[in-house]
Amino acid sequence: MPLDLETREQLLTSVRRFVSERLVPLEDKVASDDLVPDDVIAEMRELGLFGLSIPTEYGGLGLTMEEEVLVCFELGQTSPAFRSVIGTNVGIGSQGVVMFGRDDQKKEWLPKLASGEAVASFCLTEPGAGSDAAALRTSAVRKGNQYYVVNGTKRFITNANRAAVFTLMARTDPANKGAGGISAFLVPANLKGITIGKPERKMGQQGAHICDVVFEDCHVPVECLLGEEGQGFRVAMQVLDRGRLHIAGVCVGVSERLIRDAAKYALEREQFGQKIAEFQLIQAMLADSQTESYAARCMVLDASRKRDAGNSVTMEAACAKYFASEMVGRVADRAVQIFGGAGYVTDYGVERFYRDVRIFRIYEGTSQVQQLVIARNLLKSMG
Ligand code: COS
Hints:
Structural class: alpha+beta
CATH architecture of the largest domain: Up-down Bundle
Strand content: 5-15%
Number of strands: 10
Bound molecules: coenzyme a persulfide
Radius of gyration: 21 Å
Largest sheet: 4 strands, mixed
Mean pLDDT: 97
Helix content: 40-55%
Order of helices and strands: HHHHHHHEEEEEEEEHEEHHHH
CATH topology of the largest domain: Butyryl-CoA Dehydrogenase, subunit A, domain 3
């Protein structure tokens, strides 16, 4: 059920205020400490941010996709590392349970994920399976009616170091090397046989962490199966369809922040005896950024509304993620250009965003994977 417009506006206003008053002043510190402070995480919990997409009956806000991307537009107005804290609970970590979980699985996990008491991560990627997700090799061998024995390594897993539960994709049918041999599981992180690697050093988004998750003879109870055996790839793809809209929404938010910062700087900075904003070559860069950002906003909202109306949006979500993530890369590049030398200097903060947004073109499916998904679905629709 969508929120009434007044409640929706109240939610967006409180997120907007939290972002501008609490998060923006902490951007530098979070980047240099590589840590989002605990008191900020506690405030995110109080605001209900961990439960944006989780149904109200399990303690979440139960937002529609359109409402969720409107929140993403707000969260994107600051360092994306903050969004990453809640990102897996809202998206790829929880949505497998929401869409495919049994009642008992939902009751066990969703209230804790909605409140932020527990963090969820999504274990799909492996050292040898990135874009080719169906090639994953982590194995889950069923032993009688009790448990599966899981062995394998998952790579670059967001929030793994804080996770209480993993949505794990593993191969249950070794004879089937493709998508049909994969099953999904909801695995408590405290099971014996699970080791979390130390956070990787990254190009950007300091404060957001990714780690290896290694399974060694880990006994996963049969009740942890999520959906049917052999359906795990479908679970992963449907979770990602939704996640791609969320990421596209964040890209729009970040682009709006960068356009504002660049325009403000252009209105202050003087060269050749006038504000640089008066130069048409600067105006052209601002105009291109504004046009592309607006186009992405419209695309994300349209695809989200289509999903809320019950349509499959695999192609539209891929279009939105592809366009919005490439767009924010161009906008960040132009922002650095408008700032000139200052754009290259850490204290001005623009170079940090330039690095932060680079991952949007890679995770939850590279731009090339989105192109593939778009073309395949387009051609399929033509029969
Ligand atoms: N929704 C439901 N089912 C889907 C689906 C979707 N969006 N996409 C694919 N499927 C199903 C297909 O219908 C097919 O089922 P059948 O065999 O029953 O027909 C099955 O899944 C395999 O699909 P496909 O043949 O398209 O798989 P491919 O191996 O060709 O891979 C891509 C498809 C490349 C699109 C996929 O591997 C992918 O998205 N890779 C990127 C992974 C990614 O985003 N990683 C980021 C890590 S998580 S941060």
